[in-house]
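Running co-folding for coenzyme a persulfide.
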Amino acid sequence: MALDIETRNQLIETVRRFVTEECVPIEAKVSEDDKVPDSIIAQMRELGLFGLSIPTEYGGLGLTMEEEVLVCFELGQTSPAFRSVIGTNVGIGSQGIVMFGSEAQKNEWLPKLATGEMVASFALTEPGAGSDAASVKVSAVHDGKDYVVNGTKRFITNAARAGMFTLLARTDPSKKGAGGISAFIVPAKTPGITIGKSEKKMGQQGAHIHDVIFENARVPESLRLGKEGEGFKVAMQVLDRGRLHISAVCVGVAERLIREAVNYAREREQFGQKIAEFQLIQGMLADCKTEAYAARCMVLETARKRDRGEPVSMEAACCKYFASEMVGRVADKAVQIFGGAGYVADYGIERFYRDVRIFRLYEGTSQIQQIVIARNLLRGD
Ligand code: COS
């Protein structure tokens, strides 16, 4: 159920204050240390941020999608590494259980994920299966009352902190495509699981991705999510939702960068006047604002549609496509408005420029979003 308007405004204001007072001042340090401090993670737990999307009966805040994107507009106003701490619990790590879990699975796992006592991680991508998600090779072979899992997952966010994985694995090797895949809840402490090194990345230092290697890891049948062969559907529905969440984060980052660019343009003088007075600067600011506003409207509209129970695969892909490309253009213009300073680390703008690049890649590249949009159009949905 939706929050009353006063509670909703309070929540947004609290998140805004947390972001401005606690996260923004340490953005550079988080990037340098490649670590979000434990004290910040503790505050996120206290604020209930790990449980934004988990229903209240399992200890979460049970936000509607509209409320969640409003919170993400705020969380996006700082380095995306902070959002990444809670991102997998709110989105791709937990939502398979919320949408497809049995009552017993929900009762066992969701309360821990809601409080942040346990971190969830989503294990779909493999060395040979990125955009082509239906080609996963990690195998889960039925053996008595267990499945025996073997293979490697790649670029798995929060894997080293995870207490559980939502794993997509092939249970039917005779079916090469989507039909042979099943989804599982896999406790991270299962013998036979090893976590690879933290990958060095272009941006978002403080957020970590790893390989997850399964060697004869036994997963009880009771931890399968949904029916055998339904895993691809689980992954796609989790991603539909995740794409909307990421789009909202893109809007938040864009709004932050626009604010930074406006402030800088008001201060910086060239040719005897503030650069904000130059129409070429104003043009760039206006383009940024127009695009960010368009993305904000799309995201809100799609979130409301999802809350009404309508399918939003196509609209979520439109949002992800537009918002992630939009924030790339905004970050590029922010560097341009800052000029040389935009390229210098101390000003922080170049860090955002690097940070936002991943938005066009993960949870489906822009090209995958185009495919999803076009297929839906051509099917006449
Ligand atoms: N919701 C529910 N079911 C869906 C779905 C959705 N959004 N999208 C596809 N499906 C179903 C289809 O209906 C189809 O079911 P049937 O076989 O019963 O008809 C099945 O899944 C296979 O769908 P499709 O044929 O479209 O699969 P493709 O292999 O062509 O792949 C894309 C579709 C490209 C859209 C998919 O592979 C994809 O999203 N790739 C990107 C993966 C990604 O985001 N990776 C990032 C990793 S997580 S950070």
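Result summary
The radius of gyration is 21 Å.
Residues 233-379 form a domain with the Butyryl-CoA Dehydrogenase, subunit A; domain 3 fold (CATH 1.20.140.10).
Job closed.
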